[in-house]
Amino acid sequence: MHQTGTNEYTVLRPAKPQLTYMNHGVYVVCNTATRQVFVAKRIDMQRGDTRDKAVTERDALMQIKRFGGSNHIIDLIETFWDGTSPASSLILEYCDHSESTVAGHMTQHLHQSSRIPEPQVWHVLAGLIKALCFLHHGMNIDIPGDEAKRDWNTICHLNIKPSHVFLTTKGRNNAFPRVVLGDFSNSISWYDIKRGHEDRGGHIRGTPGWLPPELANPSLGDVRGRYGMPTDVWQVAAVAQVMCRLTPEPVQWLADEKHPCGRHYSAPLNELVSALMAGSLDRRPRAQDVLGILQEEVEMRGLSFYLR
């Protein structure tokens, strides 16, 4: 049984995949009153590293929720920690697709020796770029005429990879499941970056193998101040690359050579992913810069770009 300040939840089963920083586990739970199904993250608050990650994730998701949320970002249902108990709970939206994440979907295709269809790669790319527009500017692309929020504190995810991209049949409007970005434990806000908190004691944020050139290459010097929106843009494109090639990590030189996705995928997809993975920060587009081409390519393939 999980209990927050206002609700009780019955554990149905452990969730897959388990997230590494959550010492007390991740579970699929059911609200005992409403019978709705959610995911509960139980965090060991006695360890400083897990407590910091939990607070980071909670604060980011609470800000997102306060501004209305996005169809492409995991929804925080409620959170509870009294400041003294050894564990806290994050109750989150449950993503019900059979493979659960893009990583699981890739594994299925590997086992079947089959390629992921290009329309689905465009679909995932579009969902993640729309998530970035909300994180970076507070813009909900699925709401007509929505604009950047004046008082928005930019959130940078910094750890986008297939295991953090969830899939759900709930609320979808295409043949493919809705794309939902989760796990904000490595995220950082623009206010924190301005205060110089982005290096967190000199430790690299994110996952080795999933860092853009400006962070992965020590010859480029101090990483301080290099985290930010371009990190997220590169990682979103890297997810598209590994979906096409079914590899565990992205390969930068393939993007530099203008064929990150390979010959089985179209020139427009290779060109866009290559641009988003540009090694030079001044050549890497912003998320909102590629909305037009994404809408065109998605709709050309008979899919709906907007999620109403």
TrEMBL record:
Residues 1-298 form the Protein kinase domain. Pfam families: Pkinase. It comes from Hortaea werneckii. The keyword Ribosomal protein does not apply. One of its GO terms (molecular function) is protein serine/threonine kinase activity. Keywords: ATP-binding, Kinase, Nucleotide-binding, Serine/threonine-protein kinase, Transferase. It catalyses: L-threonyl-[protein] + ATP = O-phospho-L-threonyl-[protein] + ADP + H(+); L-seryl-[protein] + ATP = O-phospho-L-seryl-[protein] + ADP + H(+). This is non-specific serine/threonine protein kinase.
